[in-house]
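Here comes my example:
=====
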Amino acid sequence: MTPTLGIWLVRAEGEALAAALQRSLGGEVHRPWLSPESGQKAQFAASYRRHDQWIMVAASGIAVRFLDGLPADKHTDPAVVVLDEAGRFAIALLAGHEGGANALAYRAARVVGAVPVVTTATEALKPLTVGIGCRKGVAPERIEAAVSQALRAGGDYGIGDVREMATVDLKAGEPGLLEFCARHDLPLRVFARADLAARPWVGKPSDWVRQNVGLDGVCEPCALVASARGALLVPKTSLDGVAVAVVMDKWMEI
């Protein structure tokens, strides 16, 4: 059964974000100020089990206070993602793995251009970020072959060492890429072309990418922007219409 989603606004200033989220993710928008006879915290507590997943458009401190006393068990608690009203960060706050908050944070982030924030230990210990660009209609098997080749080139690494995939907004809905990520339970982070153009970290510019995407490259800047502390482990490597670059967190070298 598909999890049901609630989008909780603490004030009307979050309406634009809620509209964007609802268009892409569905869900029910809650506007507690329309029921002033009871406080927002009490209203949220009464609605807490109404949905399997929540996106709260609020400050994290407000979310923590609203959640006080409500979580019972990580296997049954609803997932909670907090999104600030400026749409800058999507924070997986509660039920990251079991409830799907980690994945929801990435989905919300892709919708509004936010940075997904995931703090669960399993993800923190995965050192690699993979940037990827591909031709239209590439099959997931070709993507898997290219990613595996790049990981082998970087050393004794496999897909289990990858924290996230990163690509350009033009490829956000690429079926083969989405299928590959789903098969391996990998989150996909998407960057706007304007953001990548401002960070032209490309070893060897590609004429094809410049003509078709408007950038000097995709996979290297995507991987480097996604991993703020990272260093390029595997520069752009191409296989059968798929370009891959691998970045490792610098702290792993300590």
Observations:
- The CA atoms of residues 224 and 230 lie 6 Å apart.
- The longest strand covers residues 230-239.
